[in-house]
């Protein structure tokens, strides 16, 4: 009976491990193929020929179907027009001042950034509209070219490691060397030809590598697309910070997932110590408020005056350096709490 139970337990454990590994492989696969949904957005336009029938137009404008509105012969309308039942049509005068609020203007600038970000980057990189449309046509026809990332390159390099060795009996002929050189030259020429034919125009401007002149130039280009001066670089920097934050959070989650299980308490403790290393630890609460509570509990003040005296005495007994450290760190604490928006801070 015990052996049967152990057998089923091992079988269930193997199934659980298989499901877990299958889920990890599925997650890795979807992480590789995951793309920005905006890349799949396509706008197609087709030219249609309009066939005009002169007989229909003449019949619609014939005096039999037209009538003056309110007896005004200079304003002829169709006799089936709904304006025939109206007595007065007020004239529309557009407002002289813009009625949009600052919030609406800010939202409109953000929308313009999302709309025309690629165009601004192409203008900054001196990429013409014909090149951009040609690459879109090639990607729609053959699909986008997937470039391997650095991790995949490292894995492939490790698998394809070779050790150079020459045997005593073997001889390297000059013909083989010339053939190898010729193949290398052909591959280089083909790569250069491919680069010339299909240029890569997916430009991503790195904000940190721009000098002040380039920042001014790209901000000036963005103003023609409905953005204020300085909006484009500021929003690019915000996008980059958001991507870095998401990447850091994913790395932390992946590292935490590695230390799951009963036997990994030490790893989790080391991870917490590594995460807390270099942080500024706030003064312990026990030194400030615990002392007050203990003295109040021992003395047991009977009225408000004794309570006030006890609190003053307790605060006087706290070292001045500790109070100074707490007070000077308050602005940094408040700023960190505001930026964190509910997430843990370094304090």
UniProtKB/TrEMBL annotation:
<dbReference type="GO" id="GO:0008380">
    <property type="term" value="P:RNA splicing"/>
</dbReference>
<dbReference type="GO" id="GO:0003676">
    <property type="term" value="F:nucleic acid binding"/>
</dbReference>
<protein>
    <submittedName>
        <fullName>CLK4-associating serine/arginine rich protein</fullName>
    </submittedName>
</protein>
<dbReference type="GO" id="GO:0006397">
    <property type="term" value="P:mRNA processing"/>
</dbReference>
<dbReference type="InterPro" id="IPR019147">
    <property type="entry name" value="SWAP_N_domain"/>
</dbReference>
<feature type="domain" description="Suppressor of white apricot N-terminal">
    <location>
        <begin position="39"/>
        <end position="171"/>
    </location>
</feature>
<dbReference type="InterPro" id="IPR040397">
    <property type="entry name" value="SWAP"/>
</dbReference>
<keyword id="KW-0507">mRNA processing</keyword>
<feature type="compositionally biased region" description="Acidic residues">
    <location>
        <begin position="185"/>
        <end position="201"/>
    </location>
</feature>
<keyword id="KW-0508">mRNA splicing</keyword>
<dbReference type="Pfam" id="PF09750">
    <property type="entry name" value="DRY_EERY"/>
</dbReference>
<feature type="region of interest" description="Disordered">
    <location>
        <begin position="168"/>
        <end position="201"/>
    </location>
</feature>
<dbReference type="InterPro" id="IPR036397">
    <property type="entry name" value="RNaseH_sf"/>
</dbReference>
